[in-house]
Design goal:
The protein has 382 residues and is an alpha/beta fold. Helix content is 24%, strand content 18%. A three-stranded mixed sheet has the order 2-1-17, covered by helices on one side. The chain has a three-stranded mixed sheet with strand order 5-6-7. The longest helix is centred in the N-terminal third of the chain and has 20 residues, at 68-87.
């Protein structure tokens, strides 16, 4: 009864969960965790997610915990992020620890887990609603359990909570003809719009959606299909416009290293992955947005990027108009952001990169001080 009372008493106040974009002043955020992490098996479909130069690592360690040194440094990296955010006055929440080494069997497949370090992939917050994403990796099937204590707590305090239809991840979910072992051929397939994930059932990762108030950009990626995009469009309804955008990218996976808003009216574009849609570029230009090209990421070679690119240098978290979190060793990016008028805050997080993401990937902003607005001119509501 106390929980219900709490909900009633909060109903007419600003929700504890409330964020519409990537740049309003940050108040509360979730930082993922990798305790209990396990290296995924190099299954057929996982070959398209893992970088080929690291396939041997997955062959050697698949189903086992990460090597201790890599793991300890990864844990420390996320702890560094938590401390930096708290030092800046932000409330930080962390998911529960899950033992991902356990093998599980559904009606359709058997797998071990992965980790819950990349909160952005699983959680998508739009306004006062927390959406659980129907992710496409079999090793992420039970990742939701790490976040349920947090989500139940936010729900009890007034947030809305939706779990998108969970994928069965049956074989039909993955194109059995996709040329997984032929890298050049798979690039050709992707550039012609054919991916490892089929349209058998909706799937998406939260990180493929980028929020600009009433306008939300999304890309068809290795893990987000058109079915999933359509589910989101209908779910959000007429208050939001979903724009599907294409980038030149032979391994598309999440927009937060490709097209990254860092302030109202300012977005970063990855020079290796230009936007291919003129109408999207026009939409930004006509509304006075500045589009800036950051310098290349420098991630040192001793940090294995098993699943990601060096563009994690762009994977930033905005705290407010001045403060932005950036990986500490990315000097050129830090200099570049200073030139744009920011006061970058360096976070030593690159030892988390082997676990699949960077600053933005590992977080999910829960509350930013702001309201739902339109940042683009002359766009009719659908
Ligand atoms: N999870 C974001 C990784 C994107 C990239 O590899 O650039």
């Amino acid at each position: 009864m106390t929980e219900l009372t709490t909900y009633k008493s909060l109903k007419n106040t600003t929700s504890i969960v409330c964020t519409y974009n990537e740049w309003d002043p940050l108040e509360e955020i979730i930082v993922g965790r990798i305790d209990g992490a396990v290296v995924p098996h190099l299954t057929r479909e996982f070959k398209t997610f893992a970088k080929p130069e690291y396939w041997d690592f997955f062959r050697q360690y698949g189903g086992k915990p990460y090597p201790q040194e890599l793991f300890k440094k990864g844990v420390q990296a996320l702890n560094n992020l938590q401390k930096t955010l708290e030092d800046q006055g932000i409330v930080v929440k962390r998911p529960d620890v899950i033992d991902f080494t356990k093998t599980y069997k559904t009606l359709d497949f058997e797998s071990c887990g992965f980790n819950s370090g990349n909160a952005r992939d699983f959680l998508l917050v739009i306004g006062d609603e927390i959406i659980e994403s129907p992710m496409a990796y079999r090793c992420r099937y039970f990742e939701f359990q790490a976040y349920r204590s947090l989500i139940k707590d936010y729900f009890n305090k007034g947030a809305r909570w939706t779990a998108a239809p969970k994928c069965t991840m049956a074989d039909a979910m993955y194109d059995q003809k996709f040329p997984v072992t032929d890298v050049e051929e798979s690039k050709k397939w992707i550039s012609s719009g054919r991916y490892i994930t089929t349209e058998y059932e909706p799937c998406f990762d939260g990180a493929d959606f980028t929020r600009f108030g009433r306008d939300i950009l999304v890309s068809r990626s290795l893990v987000t299909n058109n079915f999933g995009i359509e589910w989101m469009r209908r779910h959000l309804g007429p208050d939001y416009r979903i724009h599907v955008v294409r980038f030149q990218d032979d391994s598309p996976m999440h927009m937060d290293t490709t097209w990254v808003p860092i302030a109202e009216g300012m977005v970063l574009t990855c020079p290796e992955r230009p936007c291919l849609d003129q109408h999207i570029l026009d939409m930004f230009e006509k509304s006075g947005w500045e589009v800036h090209t950051p310098p290349a990421g420098l991630c040192p070679s001793h940090i294995p990027l098993h699943l990601t690119s060096r563009w994690l240098s762009m994977n930033t978290v905005v705290i407010d108009k001045e403060r932005i979190l950036v990986e500490a060793s990315e000097e050129p990016t830090i200099k570049f952001l200073k030139k744009l008028g920011f006061k970058p805050i360096a976070v030593d997080i690159n030892h988390f990169f082997p676990f699949g993401g960077g600053l933005h990937c590992s977080t999910c902003d829960v509350r930013r001080k702001g309201t739902l607005k339109s940042y683009f001119n002359n766009i009719e509501m659908i």
